[in-house]
Every structure is written in structure tokens, then in C-alpha cells.
Queue: 2 jobs
Job 1
Amino acid sequence: MPRQFIKQHCGWLLTTLILSGCDVSINHMYTSVDKSRTYPTNGEQIYFTGRNQSGSQIIYRGGHMHAQMHLTACADCHGIRREGGQRMYPFFWLTAPPLTSDALFGTHDDDHDAYTLSSLKRAITAGVDPSGEQLDSTMPRWQMSESDLEDLVDYLAEGTLKTVKHEQ
Ligand code: HEC
């Protein structure tokens, strides 16, 4: 087969596959999130930029190799509206779950219980879900000060704080 043919037709095939991805949200990394902005709260600042409002970068381990080489933030994978979805990294797709307060703290019909503030902190820093299962290694493990972590989970729990259990 002539190389030109393969190029043209594989290109088409790829485009068709991508377009037929229907309603999956396709978000190319590092293009949609404005990391230079100042966000209204420290929790939001961390979610969108990976830095706190004093400008310190939040450190993480793990995540996909691409995430290890680039500074990344929650919103890059979990979405601007915390809606989750499929994200395209060079050479592979990952699916990040939604982080809306309903998704985190509402009743779950999937494999784990609703989060509490403390189990949410553990998921972010240690990659463990409320059932004690390890999250996939594509979710980085984050290291930040206790007060930054408080601000981040408060932001994620916004609107539901009254109903979220404050145990431990
Ligand atoms: C490189 C992409 C990426 C980044 C950046 C990222 N995550 Fe994730 N996250 C994931 C993936 C993928 C999963 C799903 C892991 C699994 O299925 O086990 C996940 C899972 C989670 C979960 C568990 C949700 C559930 O339903 O159990 C929480 C909570 C979470 N991430 C919070 C965060 C927060 C907060 C940040 C920023 C500090 C962040 N993530 C940054 C990819 C990412």
C-alpha cells in the first residue's frame, strides 16, 4: 500500500473515531485552564492552578508520566466544572471521575460510600477511597499543608458542608 494512502486513510479513520466519541468531553491538556488568574478562594486557586494563593506550588507524586513532567492541577483532569470526563494525554486517554459535591458526598450507587471531609483528604493525599481501595495511579498523590488541604476540601464540599458528616 502506498504510504500516502495509509497516511490519508489512517488520518480519516482517526478523525472519525475521535468525532464518533459522541458526547464524551474531549479536553486537551493545558489549554483550557487559566493558571495565571487569581481565583476567589484558596481552595479554588489550588483546584484550578495547582498553586495556593501565596504562590507555592502544590507537590504531587505519581500520576501519568506526562503529569509528572508538567505542572498539573485538579482542573486539568477533573474539568473546569468538576464534571470529570475523558482527557487526552499524548498517547493515551484517562477518565477522571466528577468531583462535584453531589458526586462526592451524595449517595453512591457505585463501588464506594459517600465521602466525608476526612476520607476526601485521604483520597487526595494518599489515594485511598472511602472503602479503603487504592485509587488508580493515574490520580496523583498530593502533598500540601493542612490548611491548604482544608481549603481545598471546603471548596469541593461547597454547598454541602451542612450535610457532610464531620466525623473524626
Ligand atoms: C493527571 C490527572 C489527574 C489530576 C491532575 C488529578 N486527578 Fe484526581 N483522579 C484522576 C483519576 C484518573 C482518578 C480516578 C482514579 C481511579 O479510578 O481509581 C481520580 C480520582 C480522584 C478522586 C476520587 C473520586 C472518586 O469518585 O472516588 C478524588 C477525590 C480526586 N481525584 C481528587 C483530585 C484533586 C483534589 C486533585 C487536585 C489536587 C486531583 N484529583 C488531580 C486523575 C487526576
Job 2
Amino acid sequence: MKKYKNQVEENEAHRIARNESERTAGTRSLAGVLEARDQVGRPTRGADVAEVERGSIADELGIAPGAKLIQINDRPLRDAIQLKMADASERISLTVIQPDGQPRIFDIEKDAFEPLGLNVDAELFDGVTRCTNKCPFCFVDQLPKRAKGPNARNLRRTLYVRDDDYRLSFLHGHYITLTNLKEEDYARIIEEKLSPLCVSVQATDPATRIIMLGKATVGDIMERLQYLIANGIQINAQIVLCPGINDGAQLDRSVSDLMTLWPGVESVAVVPVGLTKFMPSERGMKTVRPDEARHILQQLKPHQKRACKSSGVSFMLRTRCICWPAKRCHAPRFTTAIRNTPTESA
Ligand code: SF4
């Protein structure tokens, strides 16, 4: 018990916040702070503090619920990843606007991985980065149209958001396409080691990928993956299988290409496309029939064997699209074949 107390005392002495800086209104105006933009020019509104843990550093500094976190280390606060990084760091500078409207800048010295004790109201403070693709099989297009009126019964709004945000990929395993990343985004991913990321590859052949993503400027996915992997980022890849577009020889090519990137590409999930009755018929999308599904499983077997032989892992993750209600699905039951990999499509 005594030892525990001593440890606590030592930690207290070491971790206490150094000072509350005098640099408040003098060097930066409140308006200037609120107009802060991130490194790619997007405005940031900061994060509202929902809760402060009792006895935490934030509590000792007098940061109160209702305060707004504006910057960390003089960078506009965009997302919860920065807060996690701050928790892991030994020294940080935190710009806060207290509930009374007073801006404060705290220079904090603490133990690494000691949390600040701040719980915030969201994860992406500058909004979610939207998808710029037009996949013919997009799941959002397959949702019922939202009805209007006070008695309208709708699915929840967030289902209709087409996100393509690398931060959600890192935080929650959302699949991203790497078609909307700016240089600054790549730089941040690499600098902060935001790994692993889940990537919807769909096809490694550029022309086929253009059809799958409905966008002419999708770039060379192999080059982009190689760049990320060379910089220490691990990838879990996904192929949404659409009969007549990226199956057959295209599937063989995609899987073979991705296997050349192992272990940087840790796994590949092959997911048969899911279609609902709301899918616009003029797009001509087809589901994977049970006999086709059996054929695809046979087609993937040699790849899996090759992966097992050369690298000792199954590599391929064959799974069923979550859009298929389990009771109605007559396709052969695909099985998961590798651990620690996502099992749901975007
Ligand atoms: S990437 Fe996802 S959200 Fe974007 S269009 Fe394709 S399926 Fe829809």
C-alpha cells in the first residue's frame, strides 16, 4: 500500500502541468484562434469538452465541461486522433477557450501515455471527408429514399453519408479508396503512423478500377499502396466482387498483385456485392448467384494455397456481404480464414 502511495506521489510530482502560459490575448486574438484552418486549408471548429475526469491533468488545470479545445501544439484541432497523440506525448501545448469565453494556452509536461482526462463530443471536429466516387454498386444508392413530413419513418441519417475518410479507417476500420487523399493527408498518415488502414481496392487493373469506382481519376492503386507500405503503413484490402466487372481474370490479377505486397498488405477480403430492391435497374448490376459463388471459392483456392506455401498465412478472407440477410442468403457459406482482419464491407 505504501509503495503504491509513493508511486503516486512521484507521478504527481513529475506529471503536473508546468504552467498556464501568459500568452493568451496578447499574442493571438480570440478571433484569430477561431478562424484557424488546418494544414490543407479546412476550417476547424475545435472540440467541445463534454466531460473532464476528476483528478486528471485537465481537472487540475481548471478546464471545465463546455470549454472548447482549439489547438494542440499550435495546430488546429481536427480530430480525436490528435487528442490520442496528446495523451501519448510528454509535452504538449493546448489552446482552450473556457466556457466564459476566455482563451488559455497551457504548456503541459506529463508522463507519456498519461491521459489528459478530456472527453469530447465527437471524433471528427472538422466534419467527415466525403466520398468523391460514383461506384455503380454504392450501398447508399440502395437505401430507401428519405420521406419528408412529421410522421415520416426513415432510416437513420448517418446511413446516407458517403464517407471516405482515412481517419475513420484508422479509428474504426472504415474502408477508404485512396482517391481523395491530398499530399498533406499522406504526410500526416505517415508522420503519425496511422496504421493499419482498410482500403477498397476492387481491382488493381486501372481501367477496371475506373469502372468500379465510377471516376476517371482514380490513379494507380498499386503505386499508392506501395508508397504507403514503404512508409510503414499496413493495409487490409477489400474487393467487392461484381459479376461481369471485376471477377474472373480480373479477380486473379487483383489477388496476385496484392499478394506481391504481403506483408504490407496483410489480408484481402473478397466480398460478393450486395444488392437491394432499391438498386437503380438501369445500372445493370448483378448479384453473385450461388453457382458463381461456388466457382469463385474454387478460383480463390489456388491463391490461398500459394499464400500459405510462400508466407505461411491464408491471406485471403472470403466473406459474405453484410447486405445479405443471413436467413435469405443461399450462397455457399464463405468462411473467414485469417485473424485480426475486418469482416464487414464498407
Ligand atoms: S466508395 Fe463507397 S460511398 Fe463512395 S460511391 Fe463507392 S460505395 Fe459509395
